[in-house]
Amino acid sequence: MSKKKQGPIKPIVTLVVIACLSAFILGYVHDITLEPIRQAKDNQELAAIAEVVGEFDNNPFAEKMKITTKNKKHKLTMYPARQNGALTSVAIKAYTNTGFGGRIEIMAGFNVDGSIKNFKVISSHETPGLGTKVDEPKFKEQFNGFYPRRQVLKVKQDGGDVDAVTAATISSRAVLKALERAFDAFSNFNSGGNHE
């Protein structure tokens, strides 16, 4: 009695079924985690907005808009902060790819006159204990009331008015680049430049 030779069909069908089942499970897990991940990111941004602009009684997310830098190369998101209907400050989500670890995203707070109120690093890959110090009070306090139209938004080594974090000049320059980009977009918006 001879054994029937088993062809490649059965293992191929098994692999296809396993692959389809795996794809379905991954898709399902992706769908059920998408909303909680988005909500967590929104909560992180809302906390950053509150940190950089202070108190507000409106919903900055409902009023957010895209604004562009003067050269139209960069689109940033601006979140207006209001008290009793009056605009008191704005938060602008800005970024730069010039950090020591690559991309740095910040939330920058501006008073209505264009002076910097505060900023918060919301995403970075900077070196812990060095580059991450750009988000500590010792570095950030020098920006409270800093007015980029009258002061130079560069580190002192580059002829500016900002003390860099010791041993983290690249990270300091990157944050200043992101702040400069946010200020540029805010100035362009105030002068009637593009927004959505």
Describe this structure in words.
The protein has helices spanning 9-53, 60-63, 137-140, 169-190, and strands at residues 65-68, 75-83, 86-99, 102-111, 116-123. The protein has 196 residues and is an alpha+beta fold. The chain has one domain. It has a 5-stranded antiparallel β-sheet. Strand 1 (65-68) and strand 2 form a beta hairpin. The longest helix has 45 residues, at 9-53. The chain starts with 8 loop residues before the first helix and ends in a 6-residue tail after the last helix. The mean pLDDT is 90.
What is the overall silhouette? Answer: elongated
**How would you spell out the order of helices and strands?**
HHEEEEEHH
Approximate helicity band = 25-40%
Low-pLDDT windows of residues: none
The averaged pLDDT comes out at 90
- Terminal-residue CA separation: 79 Å
Q: Give me the secondary-structure category.
A: alpha+beta
> What is the rounded Rg?
24 Å
Describe the sheet with the most strands: 5 strands, antiparallel
Content of β-strand: 15-25%
Q: Structurally, how many domains make up the residues?
A: 1
Strand order, largest beta sheet:
1-2-3-4-5
